[in-house]
Amino acid sequence: MRKSERQQYLRQLINQNNIERQEDFVSLLTQDGIEVTQATISRDIKEMQLVKVPSDGGGYHYSLPVQKQLDTQKKLKKTLNNAFISLDMLEKMVVVHVQPGSGPALATLISQMNFGEIFCTIGDDSTVLSICRSISDAKGFKAKINSLLTN
Fold first, then answer.
1. How many Cα atoms are found within 13 Å in the side-chain-facing hemisphere of 26?
2. Domains and CATH numbers, the chain
3. Which end of the chain has the smaller Cβ count within 10 Å, N or C?
4. CB of 98 closer than 8 Å to CB of 60
5. What is the pTM of this model?
6. H or E stretch including 148?
7. Strand 118-123 vs strand 93-98: parallel, antiparallel, or unpaired?
8. pLDDT digits (tens, 9 = 90+) for 7-63
């Protein structure tokens, strides 16, 4: 199965199921006769910018990202407001803690914004670290994140 077909199938699975873990994707695909590894699913999740959103019965499940017609800033604002936990700064570094699964998408969106004050941004499952060019740039970037959260 080609990557594009697999990712389309993942979209269908997300629309039909509350998928909480990458292993759930692997199990559902295996049940349908599609052999795939957890590492492949992990890469697909990152590329598709899937996010985890709260489930009705508690916990979190994967969801499709904001529709493509929204511009990057709107996507960034929505992702922040849906997944935000905390924001902190240390010298030139700004850290955003988010719901599990949201870190890669948020890091990508921050990078796509091309903020001049940011040297680089790194994201893992639930943390995004932006290293700014100066302490004043870090303060300015932190203020931008705060403004996206409050508006």
1. 11
2. 3-48 (no CATH), 72-150 (3.30.1360.40)
3. C
4. no
5. 0.55
6. helix 135-150
7. unpaired
8. 989 988 998 889 999 999 999 999 999 999 999 999 999 988 898 888 888 889 998
